[in-house]
Amino acid sequence: MKKAAAIASILLLISLSLQEISHGSSASSLTGGNQDSEGSAAARTLNQEQDQEHAHEVHCSRERSRAAWEVIEEYLMPFVEREDYQISSKCRLHPDNDLFRDQEQHKIHVDINEWKCGYCKKSFRAEKFLDQHFDNRHYNLLNISHGKCLADLCGALHCDTMMNTKSRKTKCNPAAAARNHHLCESLADSCFPVHQGPSASHLHDLFLRQFCDAQTCSGKQKPFPKGGRKKTSVFYLAISILTLMLLPIFYLVVYLHQSETRKKTQELRRISKIGQKAKPS
């Protein structure tokens, strides 16, 4: 009986020890599982934040897009307005297809050294700082869903000519010139379909002459041969203001000179009459 009781006690202790060991292992596995889940959750959060940052990255040059729009405004739109033609929104030259158009329209050029944000009214010393402000604070206002990168059309629109960045020593690449010429012709076909009437046909031909003919390495054709929007010359404006300021002074000098001449003439006549009266009879 004593032996049986001793054996039973030993078995009971062994079973209790096994339960504690199994409980500890399960607890440790549960703790490890929690740590793994917490680590994976943190990793997912970090990846989501990185994805959000990368989602705001825009691989489109704001400067070249601005140059492309300046080319369109100066060398194409005057002729489009003259023909009273409405460019389709499917055309890549349409303002709605410019990624930065809304932000560019919210730039306020107060003075030569002052630019202001049209969204939050914050002021900056130069346009480049305002561009950085748009990238950092107002990236959510970019037309990412529908907008296209206007800088992609720079090859066809001669942006380098507008930006004065093309070196004269750079050799012309015939393959690049051919690609730009093909892009230019595709823009003419999509934006000004010849079957839409006389205005579209005329603008199609003008676009080819204005932009596409110069897409060669011969150097014979220059871009924008049809000219562009007439700008008021600063020199002409200064001369006009100076003329308006000096004209009254000129008339005043002429008036005073004539008055002085008239007085001298009257004085001479008076002296002459006095002399005649003073002669002895």
Which helices and strands occur, and which strands form pairs?
Blueprint: H1 2-55, H2 62-75, H3 77-83, H4 101-105, E1 107-111, E2 114-117, E3 123-124, H5 127-137, H6 154-157, H7 159-163, H8 174-191, H9 198-212, H10 234-278
Helix pairs in contact: 8-9
Domain C2H2-type: 117-138
Biased composition (Polar residues): 25-38
Transmembrane segments: 234-256
Describe the protein's architecture and organization.
The protein contains 10 helices and 3 strands. By secondary structure, it is mainly alpha-helical. A 3-stranded antiparallel sheet has the order 1-2-3. Helix 8 runs antiparallel to helix 9. The longest helix is centred in the N-terminal third of the chain and has 54 residues. The chain is elongated. The termini are far apart. This is C2H2-type domain-containing protein. Keywords: Membrane, Signal, Transmembrane, Transmembrane helix. One of its GO terms (molecular function) is transcription cis-regulatory region binding.
